[in-house]
Amino acid sequence: MTVTAGEASGDDRIIRESGIDARIAMIIQPVLRGIGFRLVRVRLSGQSGLTLQIMAERDDGTMTVEDCEEVSRAISPALDVEDPIEKAYHLEVSSPGIDRPLVRKSDFTTWLGHLVKMETSTLVTDRKRFKGKIAEADEEGILIQRDQAAYGEAPNVRVPYDAIAEARLILTDDLIRDALSKDNRARKEARKRHAEQEDAPEGADDDNERED
User: In CATH, what number is assigned to the domain containing residue 73?
Assistant: First the structure.
């Protein structure tokens, strides 16, 4: 995956696909947004036959097995119509997982304090590969606190977003605990919103609009 200039419609990711993966992303992005999901990553691989892997999630970061099935049903017709892949392939829809790829600025903010493995498209302090804790994240980039700085290297390095080619969280006990906690909170909030919507009287919004 590479950072590309220009934005696909509705795509706020800073790390995006190239080639055939980018074309597939353009096709499925509007479909995903229409049913309340956002794209994390598209990857077409030739392992065990041709496999198209779509990583997606809801805006709150959750993604259930039922959600994966819903996404698969929604994007399959669009892919059949556009037919971007010439050969037969297997469609695989999944959640990003705990050791997830970080593709949006908000991802780095959400997972502040956790270990990340990162590759850059250009040299940053004479290196392209970094491993360390996300110490800071702002609108311009992130500050990585290296876990094992080589002799003579600064313990911290600032990496601008436009230099990041790929970034992924590293699985740790702290990450697992934090991820499960965030997921539980998100699911509780989603259930609460759903319950409030069901309890709201029918036509309440329409009445308010007429009074305005």
Answer: 3.30.300.70
